[in-house]
Design a protein that fits this description.
Blueprint lengths: L1 E6 L4 H10 L5 E7 L8 H4 L10 E2 L8 E4 L5 H11 L4 E3 L9 H8 L13 E2 L2 H9 L3 E3 L3 H15 L3 E11 L14 H4 L4 E2 L7 H10 L8 E8 L6 E9 L5 H11 L6 E3 L15 E8 L4 E8 L3 H15 L16
Helix pairs in contact: 1-10, 5-10, 6-8
The structure holds NADP nicotinamide-adenine-dinucleotide phosphate.
């Protein structure tokens, strides 16, 4: 059994990682940190995690076999640095190790990268694209929630050269995607009964999507128009992705292409009809529904995930399973919470 520490258990992603670890037969949660809650019992601060006999500390004090960080960017790389230097495998849920270029990071995150020398060692934590590299890394750059859904939706078609290098991602997220911080636009009366687009001048997840789709074939990065929307639900992302087809393809062949692409991947599955996010609620699943708009000559793929699980904490655990040589689905085969 491996000992796991979570940095920043008090945010939505950190607490979801703790919840998921309760089901894991080979990982034991042995340390949790939190800034404002340091000194409190975990179950006192987060009653739904009362089964863990742990006190929240400011830093990870005892040795652990792996660290999951759920801090915001910049703070995350800084907190992980000593663990990385000690040779402990880490899964970072912030954006700090996702972009291969420190210049692109500075452009999108408005600050110099805190540890550019480590970028080459980090592996983008999407097992469907980087499984072998993940088995050999100690720095997992867990993808953003929107990029997880968008890249999985477009990767088989992009790799195959089926679509133009010009894609549109129209995505909706539940409110937990914005974290626990307070902001007027996330108040019940502001968000409920309303849907709105944001990030129209450029969202930080766009370069990640471009980077990963660009690695799939020898061509310049595709142009990606990414428009996120806020939806009044707690969890879930639905990404509807569009791209012009380069050649005709039947629905049967398209479906077979996607089924083959993910045949050996336990969590990413072609769904027979357009999936709702509810089917993924609390699970590590990504449900895909690829279709062809024959009249417009366009590929349309719908992807549904739970932003906190496959879009966050679950995917980090999936990657750690690979790092420790465990079956990828260990501890993560959970049915959805339904209805
Ligand atoms: N939410 C998602 O769906 C999602 C999905 C994938 C990845 N992520 C990433 O995961 C990370 C955590 O996201 P989240 O949604 O869980 O955030 P969150 O719920 O907003 O948690 C953030 C908490 O972090 C603490 N914090 C902020 N700055 C800190 C610092 N400099 N040092 C120590 N603690 C600090 C604050 O707690 P205090 O009360 O202690 O100040 C704050 O409440 C982010 O990097 C995010 O981009 C989020």
């Amino acid at each position: 059994v491996y000992r796991i520490g979570i940095i920043n258990v008090t945010g939505y992603i950190g607490m979801e990682a703790a919840r998921l670890l309760a089901y894991h037969p080979e990982f034991r949660l042995t340390a949790v940190t939190g800034r404002s809650a340091a000194g409190k019992r975990l179950g006192e601060f987060l009653p739904h995690l009362g089964q863990f006999d742990l006190t929240i500390t400011e830093e990870i004090e005892d040795s652990v076999d792996a660290v999951i960080s759920a801090l915001p960017h910049a703070a995350s790389a800084e907190a992980l640095l000593p663990h990385i230097q000690a040779g402990t495998p880490v899964a970072d849920l912030s954006a700090d190790f996702r972009l291969k270029s420190a210049e692109t990071y500075a452009e999108w995150y408005g600050r110099e990268h805190p540890a550019p020398q480590l970028l080459a060692d980090a592996v983008y934590g999407l097992p469907e694209l980087h499984r072998d590299d993940l088995r050999a890394t100690k720095i997992i750059a867990t993808p953003g929630c929107y990029p997880t859904a968008s890249i999985l939706a477009l990767a088989p078609a992009m790799r195959e050269g089926l679509i133009e290098d010009d894609v549109i991602v129209d995505a909706k997220s539940g409110i937990s995607g914005a974290g626990r911080g307070l902001d007027l636009k996330y108040h019940y009366a502001e968000a409920n009964e309303s849907v709105s687009a944001y990030g129209l001048s450029g969202h930080r997840h766009q370069p990640e999507i471009g980077q990963e789709l660009g690695l799939l074939r020898e061509a310049p990065q595709p142009s990606v128009t990414f428009v996120p929307h806020l939806i009044p639900m707690t969890r879930g992302i639905l990404a509807t992705c569009y791209a012009k087809l380069r050649r005709d393809i039947t629905l049967e062949r398209l479906t077979a292409l996607y089924e083959d692409a993910y045949a050996t991947h336990p969590f990413t599955k072609v769904h027979a009809s357009s999936p709702g996010t509810k089917l993924t609620y609390g699970t590590n699943l990504c449900l895909l529904h690829p279709t062809v708009d024959q009249r417009a000559g366009r590929l349309v793929v719908v992807a549904a995930i739970d932003n906190l699980v496959k879009g966050g904490a679950g995917q980090a655990i999936q990657c750690l399973n690979l790092v420790f040589g465990l079956p990828e689905e260990t501890g993560l085969r959970l049915p959805a919470v339904y209805p």
